[in-house]
Amino acid sequence: MATQTQTITYEASLDVLEPIRKLLTQIGQEVELSKKKTYGLCLAVDEIATNVIRHGYEEAGITDGVFDLIIKKNDNQLVVTIVDAGTPFNPLEHNLPTEQDLSIPLEERPIGGLGVMIARQSVDEFKYEFSNNKNRNIFIVRYDQTDY
Amino acid sequence: MQIDINTENSILIITLKGSIDSKTASEVQQKVLEASVESDNVIIDLTKVDFVSSAGLRVLLMVYRQIKSKNGKVILVGVSEEITEVMEMTGFINFFEIIDTVTNALSSF
Q1: Mean per-residue pLDDT of chain A
Q2: pLDDT at A110
Q3: Which of B84, B62, B85, B38 has the alpha carbon at shortest distance from A121?
Q4: Given 3.30.750.24, 3.30.70.1140, 3.40.630.30, 3.40.50.10210, which CATH number is that of B2-106?
Q5: Who among B22, B54, B68 is closest to A118 (CB)?
Q6: Is the pLDDT of residue A147 over 60?
Q7: What pLDDT, on the 0 to 100 scale, is given for residue A138?
Q8: A42: which chain B residues are within 8 Å (Cβ-Cβ)?
Q9: A62 phi and psi, to 5 degrees?
Q10: Contact status of B40 with chain A (Cβ, < 8 Å)
Q11: Residue A112, pLDDT score
Q12: Which of B22, B93, B95 to mutate to test the interface with A (most CBs of A within 10 A)?
């Protein structure tokens, strides 16, 4: 299969989260990605897109923001990139909750910080780049036959 | 997002249907917390929930805190494999009792 790329522009609104999950689920089925990997991809993209919408745009006072979702189907992997012009934020520099944090009883646990951790752990590879004044959050899932 | 609330033998049964993401979580949180004010024991049925993001986990956390402060118990029912995995990843799994069906959950109180 030759590389196929599609780019879709979304409004920076939480209303787009569900349509994005539906699209990624459909593409996951097309490339015969396992149910588990498809769910992981949807989850990771959902978490980062939420951060982009909430922190990158809303908190910065930008009401008409948009972001691009670039979906690239290769022979052996699916690469999804969120490109946004909101506040620069590198999730890889974000302090992840430690083992110790995660064992704190739920009633004492600080709320937050989980989204980035979930995003990073739910795909095979997660990358972040900042170029041309834009954040690029990159999610890679490999078509792993042994996963079925 | 559909939220149904019932009571059986003074145990609150909350049945959720749909996806709990950052868009839907606030409505779920408000309704669920409001409903559980009067209850010490809550069953949350997630059988028809196909997606839970960190925003959804936060809702579970809020319910857990509210019920725990009254020394009550929260049981989750019908948790899919994918949602279980996220709960494991985040350590949430250790704090909730997870049971396969509402009937079995009811008889565990």
Answers
A1: 91
A2: 61
A3: B85
A4: 3.30.750.24
A5: B54
A6: no
A7: 98
A8: 51
A9: -90, 115
A10: no
A11: 59
A12: B22
CB contact under 8 A, A35 and B82: yes
Q: Tokens 């969120």, residue?
A: A82
In the prediction, which pLDDT does A107 show? 62
* Cβ neighbours of residue A18 closer than 8 Å, sequence gap 6 or more: B19, B21, B23
The H or E element spanning position A96 is: none
User: What residue type is assigned to position A124 of the chain?
Assistant: D
* CB atoms B19 and A107 under 8 Å: no
- Averaged in consecutive runs of 10 residues, what is the pLDDT profile of chain B (109 residues)? 94 97 96 92 97 95 92 96 95 92 95
Give the DSSP H or E segment for A61: none
Of chain B, the end-to-end C-alpha distance in Å amounts to 28
Distance CA A6, CA B33 (A): 42
- B71 and chain A: CB distance < 8 Å anywhere? no
- Reading phi first (left if > 0) and then psi (alpha if -120 to 50, else beta), residue B28 is in alpha
Strands A134-142 and B2-8: unpaired
- Interface list for B 88-107 with A (CB within 8 A): 89-92, 94-95
- Touching check for B68 and chain A: CB below 8 Å? yes
Please determine, for the modelled complex, whether the ipTM score is greater than 0.85: yes
Nearest CA-CA partner of B82 in A139, A49, A136, A21: A21
